[in-house]
């Protein structure tokens, strides 16, 4: 069975998260897929950042939506890196991407870029929010989508199917063999996050997961020797 290793915000355990530096390192280290997060700037740019505020990962303060793209570009996102826009990541790396959207406004912006840049085969769209995935399904019926969840039960399978998602991306600490088997029976792939240690990797393989999202590049190397 193929086990995908997915670089979490690039390889955020060793590089500033959601920066070009982190994404390039993830590709160089051989991660199969690169995951990133998307918000909209005040002027509608599709910027790559996890939090709704810039405080944790930059030298600025305040909500992303209060900044124009030019203002966001002036912030230090770690080691001198700047906050990238989605299109820059598409151009910088060749790996498949998982783009996590935070709301329906970002869904519409992402759908426009995917259409304009012909990225359907390269980008999976992820979200914690059912309504954002439903919006993507309406805008891009052929898009591959995944429902992300941290606290969940078996109902997450029905939620995913209701919005047309083909994959679950789930907190590995709550995953059970029953859920994985039921998801697979419903033709849903299951990815676990975050797989950061050998024990996490053994658990992921033991549960029969289709892949793991990791902060560290060495998990890619370790995955070759587990089954």
Topology record:
Blueprint: E1 4-7, H1 20-28, E2 33-40, E3 46-48, H2 69-73, H3 86-92, E4 97-101, H4 104-117, E5 123-127, H5 130-139, E6 144-149, H6 155-162, E7 167-171, H7 177-185, E8 189-193, H8 198-206, E9 211-214, H9 218-223
Helix pairs in contact: 4-5
Give a verbal description of the structure.
The model has no long low-confidence stretch (mean pLDDT 96). Strand 4, helix 4 and strand 5 form a beta-alpha-beta unit. The chain has 227 residues and is an alpha/beta fold. The chain has an 8-stranded parallel beta barrel, surrounded by 6 helices. It has 9 helices and 9 strands. The chain has helices spanning 20-28, 69-73, 86-92, 104-117, 130-139, 155-162, 177-185, 198-206, 218-223, and strands at 4-7, 33-40, 46-48, 97-101, 123-127, 144-149, 167-171, 189-193, 211-214. It has a single domain (4-225), classed as Phosphatidylinositol (PI) phosphodiesterase (TIM Barrel). Residues 3-224 form the GP-PDE domain.
